[in-house]
Design goal:
- The complex is a heterodimer of chains A (about 250) and B (about 260).
- With about 250 residues, chain A is α/β, with parallel strands linked by helices.
- Chain A contains ten helices and ten strands.
- In chain A, helix 3 packs across helix 4, helix 5 packs parallel to helix 6 and helix 9 packs antiparallel against helix 10.
- By secondary structure, chain B is mainly alpha-helical.
- Chain B is elongated.
- The chains are: A alpha/beta (about 250), B mainly alpha (about 260).
- At the A-B interface, helix 3 of A face helix 5 of B.
């Protein structure tokens, strides 16, 4: 479904991605783990075409999106939903208007049809009755739920999550993860989750990839990753600092 | 010497890159003005924001500008015994020059800065990215309604500013300085031509475009964090104010 080939990206003198290779299969949920500032969000922004790479390709449904522009890129984007780190809800709109936005802007559905779908999406994420609140009146967890409802409403084939549980307490982290799992079963999307939540992320992903120093250093099932011999992966899972430095010294 | 050339060269290149980006931003905005779908509701909301909500500040500034002009004009004209020309002095100063300029400066401070801050916050909270990802063009959705609202609202606000200013001048001339009411308005009618009103209209139209262009551009390209938005807002207000005065002189020299 998504194939990332030899992706490079620099910002000035800082090289963030140094040849990322990754394949995300259709219908699977893949988690990308790695330290903060390691380029995970930059990788996600490449997948939705918000950033252009210095080198490399990203194939979605067989098309290299790094070479697409305008309407052709928008056609690919129509199949992708994104849950941004902070939710990226439009603060001048109510919860209802936020969730309805993709349908109002990009479809010709009637008001009644839109209403039914918005109510269903909000019910799916446990936010029925919150339609007329503004994002500023919601808690962090609720905002993430609204963002998920907005991303799901157009029934995208691919759903990308940029650290969907950052800043939430452990109970809310579990609740959001359960929500992702439930909606994945219900909607069957291909998911990509950028996350730091170890070990919770292993429960909801089919595959886990570790991004370190601008490269994917290990990919496998959650069990394989947890049993990995790679010192960088081991140290990251155990929360030991300077995993990479230790590896360099060892080599 | 080499360091100086390096310094000047570096800043010149940066300046031209900045101008180029601004120009491309304007071209893209103009392109989206004419390409459907049109965001009419967003335009109406911004028109209300620029026009209706700026009315009080425009009325106050207009009234006091007219009153000050009348007072100062009387002091100068009295020396030559030409107080009868106070009406045309107030009206021409307001219609040709002060109305468009002061009104544009006030609206920049009230609405332009708010537009920059709003778009800047949309940028740093990824709302602009969210629009792009949903295949909704952010220039069309956020920038174009502001530019169109500015082009429509500025001339209308300037007209209000001028009328209120002329009546402010009337209050001072007739009720405080004892000039006859007939003289004030009759002389005004004699000396103010339609061409003067047109010049003021062209000026305010162009200020509407310039201010909204600069303010939306600064917000759209604001840096990260609260500091980035605050810097963008300051830059937008300062640059808009300077451009208003420079463009006013250039238009004045060209249209006179």
């Amino acid at each position: 479904m998504i194939e990332i080939k030899d992706l490079y990206k620099s910002f000035g003198k800082q090289q963030v991605l140094k040849g990322v290779n990754l394949v995300i299969k259709e219908g699977e949920v893949t988690a990308i783990i790695g330290r903060s500032g390691g380029g995970k969000s930059v990788l996600l922004k490449h997948i939705i075409g918000l950033l252009k790479p210095d080198k490399g390709s990203i194939f979605i449904k067989g098309q290299d999106i790094t070479k697409l522009k305008g309407k052709k890129l928008d056609e690919i984007r129509a199949d992708i939903g994104v849950v941004f780190q902070g939710g990226a809800l439009f603060d001048s709109m109510t919860v209802y208007e936020n969730v309805a936005f993709p349908l109002v802007e990009k479809t010709k559905l009637t008001k009644k049809e839109i209403h039914e779908r918005v109510i269903k999406a909000l019910t799916d994420v446990g936010l029925q009755g919150m339609e007329y609140k503004y994002p500023a009146e919601l808690s962090g967890g609720m905002r993430k739920r609204v963002a998920l409802a907005r991303a799901l409403i157009a029934h995208p084939k691919i759903l990308l999550f940029d650290e969907p549980t950052t800043g939430l307490d452990p109970i809310l982290v579990r609740s959001i993860h359960k929500l992702i799992k439930d909606t994945h079963i219900q909607y069957g999307f291909t998911g990509l989750i950028i996350s730091h939540e170890i070990p919770e992320i292993f429960e909801i992903s089919d595959k886990v990839a570790m991004l370190h120093d601008g490269r994917i250093v290990e990919v496998g099932t959650p069990e394989e990753i947890q049993k990995s011999d790679n010192i960088v992966v081991k140290n990251f899972i155990m929360g030991i600092e300077n995993g990479g430095d230790y590896e360099k010294r060892k080599s | 010497m080499v360091q100086l050339i390096n310094f000047v060269g570096k800043y010149s290149v940066e300046f031209f890159i900045f101008l180029g980006k601004m120009f491309i931003f304007l071209l893209e905005s103009i392109y989206h003005i004419f390409i459907p779908p049109f965001k009419f509701r967003n335009f109406l909301r911004q028109l209300r924001f620029f026009g209706n909500k700026s009315m009080i500040v425009v009325i106050f500034t207009g009234a006091f500008s007219g009153m000050v002009l009348a007072l100062q004009g009387y002091y100068a004209l009295n020396k030559f015994g030409a107080e009868a020309l106070l009406g045309p002095v107030v009206a021409l100063s307001l219609i040709r020059e002060l109305g468009p300029v002061l009104c544009a400066l006030m609206v920049t401070g009230r609405a332009g800065s708010a537009v920059t801050a709003e778009i800047g916050i949309m940028r740093i909270t990824e709302q602009i990215d969210a629009l792009t990802v949903m295949a909704v063009n952010p220039i069309k959705y956020v920038v174009v309604p502001n530019i169109l609202a500015g082009i429509v609202a500025f001339p209308l606000l300037t007209a209000v500013f001028n009328v209120v200013g002329i009546y402010g001048g009337y209050l001072v001339c007739v009720h405080a300085l004892g000039l006859s009411e007939g003289t004030y308005f009759a002389q005004m009618e004699l000396y103010v031509d339609m061409e003067d009103i047109e010049i003021g209209l062209y000026k305010s139209l162009s200020f509407g475009l310039l201010v909204t262009w600069i303010c939306t551009f600064m917000g759209y390209n604001s840096g990260y964090g609260a500091r980035g938005v605050s810097k963008a807002t300051t830059n937008a207000v300062v640059l808009s104010s300077v451009v208003i005065l420079v463009w006013d002189y250039m238009l004045g020299a060209f249209l006179l």
